Amino acid sequence: MTHPTLIIIDMQRGMLDPAAGERNNPQAPLRMAELLQAWRLAAAPVVHVRHISRSAGSQFAPGQSGVEFQPALQPLPREHVVEKNVPDAFIHSGLERWLRVRGIDSLVIVGVSTNNSVEATARSAGNLGFTTYVVADGCFTFAKVDYQGVLRSAGEVHAMALANLQDEYAQVIESQAALALLKQV
């Protein structure tokens, strides 16, 4: 049995920009850093996902400071880095092949934003047959206006995204449960 792979999604400097608006889970980056440290101590696989925008004016465009990883979650040379141009980390990235070649079948997903890249990646992971866990206190998102024009708080958007994933694509867990998964191997 192999360790589950920790996948950290889009924890880039641009996510710190206050212009993104209200967000939930202010402790999520700390939970991510704690999980990353535990994975490193266990010599378990880690994948860092970075969004690279196709729009030249984006803070996530190549050469912009927003595209860089946040210092506390900077990849080590031995850790795999995936670059993506769409929310789903499996699309056109080689991630599935990288995992399959290593015999990895279990994923623990953290990052931002819960209702976008985290949800898209977790849906694909579940559809591809990976045992998938999304760490609720290791993800965050931003307030968003819904289809009917109602402003939803970041907490509401986060909760709905997790509800979309629970049991159908992934198991939604807390960081302590993720640490317990790591210790089961």
TrEMBL record:
User: Which Pfam families does the record associate with it?
Assistant: Isochorismatase (PF00857)
Q: Which UniProt keywords apply?
A: Hydrolase
For the Isochorismatase-like domain, which residue ranges apply? Answer: 5-175
Q: Which InterPro entries match?
A: Isochorismatase-like_dom (IPR000868), Isochorismatase-like_hydrls (IPR050272), Isochorismatase-like_sf (IPR036380)
What SUPFAM superfamilies is this protein classified in? Isochorismatase-like hydrolases
**A GO MF label:** hydrolase activity
Gene3D superfamilies according to UniProt: Isochorismatase-like
UniProt keyword Transmembrane present: no
Signal peptide from the UniProt entry: none
Q: What is the designated name of this protein?
A: Nicotinamidase-related amidase
Instruction: Please tell me the species this chain comes from.
Output: Phytopseudomonas argentinensis
